[in-house]
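Re: that chain you flagged

S.,

Sorry for the slow reply, it's been a week of failed gels. I finally had a moment to sit down with the sequence you sent. For the record, here it is as I used it:
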Amino acid sequence: MIALLRKDLPWLLAVLAAGWATLAIVLSQEGFVHVWALPATRLGGYFHAAWICGAVLGLCAALADEAQGTRDFLHHRPVSPTRIHAARVLACAVVLAAWWVLPPALHWLIESIFGENAAQARFATLLDMGAVVTAAASAAAIGLFAGTLPCGLVLRFATGAATLLAVFTAIDAFALRPGGEGWRLASQAAFAGWHLAAAFGFGLASFANAGTAPDPDRPLPHRARVVSGTLATLAFAALAATLAGSGQYSGLASLWHAYPAVLRQGDEFVLATRTEDREQMVWERVDRAHQRSPAALDRRGLTFVEDASQPRGTMEPGFNEPRFHDLDWYRPAQRLDVLLCEDGRSWLLRREGYTGRVEVHGTGKGEAGAPFLPGFQALEVRAERERPLWVAEPASGVLWRFAPERGHFVAAQLPGGDRLIAARTVRRDVLDNASRPASRDSTHGQEHLVLQGEQGVYRLDGADLVPAEAWLRALVTVREPQRREFVDADLLSPRLRILDSSGAPLFAHDFAPRTAKERLHAGIACWYSALRPPFLQVAGHLWAARGAQSNPLLDPLVAGGARAWLVLVGIGCAALCAFGAHRRLRRAGVAPAVRRFWVVCIGVCGPAALVGCAAAERARAHAAPPRRSAPAGAPRIATPRDPVAQAPG
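Prediction finished late last night. Pasting the structure tokens below so you have them in one place:
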């Protein structure tokens, strides 16, 4: 083992130094205070640098012997292929451990020698940095697994890219914690745990390819086909599900944008669709069938109620960096920043002149700096000279204002000793405009922040709290629906119900594809469902909750037992693909056991498994050896006479 590590020492040191320098530079660009003194929220560059360095490490470990021409030399030595591969895995683990320790240590050391903010370091942030670097371990294992596949280089790189995208996208969805949909907040433990599990799994699977050289004229070994072929097929299937989810999200968004909006005119609710001309929007009234209504749309007093432009609760899948904390930045005074975290904690950053030194202090409610209760709302009011920062805390009924001279939040009394109920943003969405021609409609959506108390309504005027004007009070106290809810969580055919303050229904409408444009978008969304892997469709149909899914691998159109026919369509498409693959493999002379293996893979994983089957089972590898037309003749071997026997005497 030591001799094998010594042989790989040159490229190991080169990759170690390059990765160390890259991670240290990226970490230094994030800023010492933002990484060490505060909850780490600016580690996106560190994450991307980590997985890129990890992928390069895995590929170098897999292809180093092949590039240097020493692979055949090692195979002729009295060392087993498993032991050779174990040395590569050990070398990768040593490099990853060094990357976990050295870049943060170098960053802190440089700040201690040349900087001014080393004393502000909170070593608890090492957990955030360590969790981010686990992405390098999973990327290195995926690169090692893909680089050792017994196939061509192009297919190896394609398999590695597909596996990386599928695994990282799935982990991004699995690591989301409850309540983190706004900024896609991830659980630190879940993120690190899933990446370490992926690193262990793919690192272990790479041993199935140990000692197997790529040969296009020979079939894959049984172990490599079962282990590597299955994992590669699942990776392509997961990537297909993710790409189908992205296309489906676009189709659903177009469908919801085509649905009419709900408008209110006095006590009447109407449906209207909008079209855009060169200057502005034009609204047209439609009936319950989403067809143009002959009745004209009166613009007077017309306001918005519900605009179905985006699918409720859906999230487009993507390859995102982890965000373990959510910080909101505010600047109430020059060289003074206030940060609020989603858990109610807050910090005060005070910058000292031009020296670059930043003092970080904990702040909060009162001199004790208590954190805010759940459900708080930060309210920043723009003014000419200053930007006061207010925090509404409905749970305690108190409004807090940040006092720069004191360095903490102080309680603000509502007029008359009123108690705070909620901080609301009301919109005056009037669709008529007297300054425009009568044939034109325009939308005026003005948002106003108001504080609703038990006795009255108030607004923030700079650093003062004053009673709201009559028209603002009317927007808050006007008789309007108190709840707007979608009864049916289905994304193709949701049902909107509007209730008053007592819970009595005021309006209900079943949205469904009724026009040609709506049916086209719905058909596109269903078509993407048919391309998803059948085993994921069946799992989502039987066990997932109805409605939008935060996991991009699950189909929201069939979740919760909806649209069984769409699941059967996907199974039928997979069965047709499996039948076609079986015929091709039989014509190529593939063994029956191999044909059954790929039929099962394609039937379970769907059309995406065709890529792996076509790339792994080439016809030339299973072709019978060429037959000779005539039997070979007897060997002709000429033995020279012994020169000693021919010598005279």
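What I noticed first: Confidence is low (pLDDT under 50) at residues 432-444.

Talk soon,
D.
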